[in-house]
Amino acid sequence: MTTTRVERDSMGAMDVPAGAYYGASTQRAVLNFPISDLKFQRCFIRALGLIKLCAAEVNKEFGDVDAKLADAIISACEEVVAGSLDHDFVVDIFQTGSGTSTNMNANEVIANRAIEILGGKRGDRNLVHPNDHVNNGMSSNDAIPTAIHIAALIAINEKLKPALLKLESSLRRKSLEFMPVIKTGRTHLQDATPIRLGQEFEGYAGQVERALLRLEYAQSRLSEVALGGTAVGTGINTRQDFARRVLARISKRLGFLGLTLSETSNHFQAQGTLDEIVDASGVLKTIAVSLIKLANDIRWLGCGPRAGFAEIALPEVQPGSSIMPAKVNPVIAESLIMVAAQVIGNDATIAVAGASGNFELNVMMPVAAYNLIQSIELLAAAVANFTGKCIDGLTATDNGPKLVERGLALCTALVPAVGYDIAAAIAHEAYTSGQTVREVARRKSKLSEEELTTLLDPMRMTAPDQN
Questions:
Q1: Model pTM?
Q2: Are residues 292 and 156 in the same domain?
Q3: H-type helices in 92-139, by residue range?
């Protein structure tokens, strides 16, 4: 039988688990929202803990919270930031749209831990009060959106950027390794003029390079936060310099990430909308779409090994069939594509959440926060896996070079010498007869063997500006 203790909030008494650090308001939320098993991620709890910690330091400086109490709150917040109290953050994601339940969850956990540090008994609101002391100078309505921004910035810096940088590096190494390998280019899934396998991988590396640039833009927007607006953006019950000082301290603590947070210049838009979160999610969606293209190309290039292109060989990581022996599938690429699909779906949820601001407050903050952070973390994990278990181990086969001489698009190089119509006729006859463009051109044109050799050199076609 679970033992309980009695805690109180503004609505009265409430039984809570005896061992819990949270209090009455949190327990009410647990009972009110038995919706899912989804809870805020570690980086969000860390971000909220940082806000409360630095707020306590500033409140101590101002003399708005007694120094002894503030020090106990700071110590409790350090534990929240470190993750040792995560088990007490119990409120479902599908809760009050402002995230007030989670804000109170944090306030109560920090307050009760601070009470314990001071030698008191949990629930003694006369010693440390979750609202008057821990939440001093803040509202859920500015603290929660600020925590979302900070959590996303942490996750991007610590997880997604490093993963993308490794993928870009791996793709560039493969580009150099594959640059001597000539193959048939493809447009509309049909044969096109020759290209180097290394040039294709140069394109993939360029996709990731630009994904990182997009992330930098998203970070620049997320670095402007709502703290300081309190309830409706007017800043009631907070000091004018409170947010600036708190954010300066958070920035210093996150200095190793290269982050500098700033108070928004317009609190009414910062709390009435989730525009920056929608914008950041759009960047993640763009990256996901780009990665689907990249992963699908890898699947196509490796399809076979006998009846497909098989221009590259993918690392064999697991058996591919329960019935067909020796079958190996591009499962790592498939995994990445599924993650990208999830991110695109998350973006749709975030778009609906962003459209759900009414007057001075958005009322779908928790689900937007969860989906944004999930998108960042899923992309980071899938990209890292894709790099290590797929891209790093790719090898080129000789299938691509073998097919180049039979490519009909080689006739493109003949156009300057014989004209478009004659070149087209040569290609058509080569197709219907099964001969090569070179063989037909010997009969159909007045070009010498030396001229044909020069014009139909596939390597030459991959760098026409150097000819």
A1: 0.96
A2: yes
A3: 100-117
